[in-house]
Amino acid sequence: GPTCAFKDMALQILPYLLTTSIKKLGVDKKVVILVATSGDTGKAALEGFKDVEGTEILVFYPEDGVSAMQKKQMTTQEGGNVGVCAIKGNFDDAQTGVKTIFTSKETADKLAENGMMFSSANSINWGRLAPQIIYYVSTYAQLVADGEIELGDKINIVVPTGNFGNILAGYYAKHMGVPVNKLICASNANNVLTDFIKTGIYDRNRPFHTTISPSMDILISSNLERLLYHLSGSDDAQIREWFGSLSKTGRYEVTDEVKKAIADEFYAGCCDDEQTKACIKEIYDEYSYTCDTHTAVAVKVYKDYAAATGDETKTVIASTASPYKFSGSVLAAIGKDTNADEFGLVDELAEVSKIPVPASLAALKDKEVRFTKVIDKADMKDYIYSALGI
What we know:
By secondary structure, the protein is an alpha/beta fold. The chain has helices at residues 8-25, 40-49, 68-75, 91-102, 105-113, 126-129, 133-145, 165-175, 192-199, 224-231, 236-249, 256-265, 273-287, 293-309, 327-333, 342-353, 359-362, 380-388, and strands spanning 30-36, 55-62, 82-88, 116-120, 155-160, 180-187, 201-203, 251-253, 266-270, 315-317, 374-376. Helix 7 (133-145) packs across helix 8 and helix 15 packs across helix 16. The longest helix has 18 residues, at 8-25.
């Protein structure tokens, strides 16, 4: 898609789902899209919503928690209805700030007084998540068409994830009828999901790691709440108890029944930066293919899964971004020089990979930076008011 991330398809569709819904419901307010991003969602949302009538979009990203290319993508964004702001903190800080603002009656009232209302383009918005189900349906159909599997054969799906959205789309595809054996959740050093799937204990009281796969640098995983709602038999009181505990203590433990349901559907693994780099090099040496830093996490976790279980089921690995968004890390992993500037690294990676540089990334080189503001996380609400002129 236009921003070289798996989120593009959903975020090219979402603005039109949203504006159509507004018209059908007779809503006459301007919709303000608030986004917290760990790198990819922000740019994909900005590109989807730029100059869409009746909307404004404001994106918050962690100042030191995205790649140089991801930052360039966001800070050069065109459009008259867009705003981008860095925060001092990590993605969890940005996401918590956005959720707090969403649920603030004072803020909602202030927007309403000015003819505005909030919505989101993160995967906390169902309209962002639903289109991603298509990936898994389409992939299965393609495998059948290519003769890789027979219709009805089960497949495994491996997804590198931090916020649990893309893998949850795979879960929904399975429960809509796609024959899936195991959903394999791949994490980087921020391995809170791995520990949860293995133990049933969710504990965010741990160090936060800034890694070479920054879009997965997350300790509070939003979409897990949706999964647990299904697995608990739609017990909303139980969900409120668990997530209330997460908010107060940073921890909760699910029931034995839910633990078994998770084990039946999911497997989880993780790897650190060194293992991620080693996997990128291994793939490059064997296939001459330059794998991005997130997809490599999935490959490593899949190899560990296959070795541990002996499962030979045909397996799909979700590749989630272009290596050109992480050129320095990919080049370093395969032992190449990384002394050039960002676009020098892009040129070098193009030479090494023999994959053309996506036009949208190449064009960033000469684009003017429009957004340079960096704020404390406590000032997010004030930034929103200022950006909206209210």
